[in-house]
Amino acid sequence: MSILNSYHYPKPAEEGLKLQYVGKRLAQLPTPAAIIDIAATRRNCEAMLAAIEDIGGLDFRPHVKTHKTSELTELQINGYDRKRDRAAKLVVSTVAEIEHLLPWLLEKKRKGTLIDVLYGLPVSPSSLPRLAAMVNVLGLSSNISLLVDNPDCVDIIAKAKPSWPGVIEVFVKIDTGYHRAGVEPDSEPFWAVVRKLTQQQDKIHLRGIYSHLGNSYDGDSVEDAVNGLKLELEKLHQAGKLLAGEISPVSNAFIYSVGATPTATAVQNLAGDTPNARGFRHSLTAMRRELENKGIDLTIELHAGVYPLLDLQQLATHARPKNVNFYSLSSEPSHRYAGLSIANLGLYILAEVASLYPHRAKPEGLIAAGTLALGREPCKAYPGWGIVSPWGDGDVAWHWNHNYENGKAKFYDLDLPEADRTGWIVGRISQEHGMLTWEGPPSEKRELKPGQKLLIWPNHACIAGSGFGCYFIIDSDSADSTVVRDVWVRCRGW
Ligand SMILES: Cc1ncc(COP(=O)(O)O)c(C=O)c1O
């Protein structure tokens, strides 16, 4: 039996939340709360789409796993430019995400927008009836594709065919180095999957191949991110050339889908007219030409998920420069890109100071926000679980450029050598509570008081958001960046 996710993970009442909180100030919100700065988020979404448009010859399929809201999915698809009307090509990591997006998807379909959703990991077999139900609701013109990397799973998926309208479309998941899911090109497991797909061609059609280079988070420079992207593409092309000879796709269309936020947003480093950028575009053309010679029309698409909100883990990859002025794009509109800096972090966790321990060797404070609000994801750039932003000294309109004073950061700045960093971080963490620790000379300590609310940058936005049923939306481009402009309900669970 297939049970809708919303029975297990009920969602908060959106209208009630909006009535209660829109127009309120951050300091009036219950804590902990997840806060999205729409201005930074818009910039990040625009930058991704602009880079895809500027480079040309690439498609983009946003992942919705980070935020799980229809509002941000729309921004990922069309950006802030209301003139765009792009296909609803998405990656999801749970059936719950599709179920939650269903009203939005149906509205898209009503307007004639193409729906093309990819379940981004090999699917657990018991989820197939719920997925089939979604395909039935969305209809034959829409697509929900699955990933496969095991011959037995191909057989299990084939058995779901009677309840699935049309053929079941799949991508083969290729392991390009992350070693989570996937098969390596030309390996025995790769060929076992290919053989099985050939046998099941009447029920299952191969659409393309997919890679997620999660280990690109280990990178530390623009070069690392760009090289990661190139590596993913090369590995997929290695697999694609082999598949082109073996399996005839339904149409002659075939897709390479690659990316994680460091590698996908790295294309912002590759727009313009530099030798590196020209070389990249040339390699895309060469891949397409090689498959064209085998009668295949290749689409190369990027996918990414955490890029609209970003987080401290992403800053630590240095996958893009901090400052957009870096881009030497001659006549290109470089302002369309977004720097990888705290100004473009879209997610904060609002937490309240519960107590203070100024007498300790390292001054400390207790906040009522722990693992369940911030996650327990480390960040390789510092030994903590979140960084306290400078906001919070009074309930007054506050502007984001107040993060710096005379060029000096008013927070624990990851750009400085560790010994020179000064500010509050979440130094220890337990289930519902976190310990703030003051880093730097005690004499420079920023005074806090019990009951004070603080905005904290989390290490990993996907995990931090998962503790909340909704996001409160603020807008740092507006005259008063501390006023709640909207409330977005998100889904949870599987
Ligand atoms: C299979 C898969 N694809 C794509 C992504 C998107 O990666 P990122 O969150 O780095 O943008 C993820 C994220 O975990 C993923 O698991």
Structure explained in plain terms:
By secondary structure, this protein is an alpha/beta fold. Helix content is 30%, strand content 21%. It has 14 helices and 19 strands. The strands form three sheets. Strands 1, 10, 11, 12, 15, 16, 17, 18 and 19 form a nine-stranded mixed β-sheet that branches. Helix 3 (38-55) packs parallel to helix 4 (70-78). The radius of gyration is 23 Å and the shape is globular. The relative contact order is 0.16. Mean pLDDT is 91; it is low at 325-334. Bound molecules: pyridoxal-5'-phosphate.
What topology emerges from the helices and strands here?
Blueprint lengths: L4 H4 L5 H8 L11 E5 H18 L3 E4 L7 H9 L9 E5 L2 H16 L4 E8 L5 H11 L4 E6 L2 H9 L8 E6 L14 H12 L4 E8 L10 H25 L6 E6 L2 H5 L9 H18 L4 E8 L7 H4 L31 E11 L6 E4 L3 H4 L11 E3 L15 E2 L2 E2 L13 E7 L4 E6 L13 E6 L2 H5 L4 E5 L11 E4 L5
Parallel strand pairs: 1-18, 2-9, 3-4, 4-5, 5-6, 6-7, 7-8, 8-9
Antiparallel strand pairs: 1-10, 10-11, 10-17, 11-16, 12-17, 13-14, 15-16, 18-19
Helix pairs in contact: 3-4, 5-6, 7-8, 9-11
The structure holds pyridoxal-5'-phosphate.
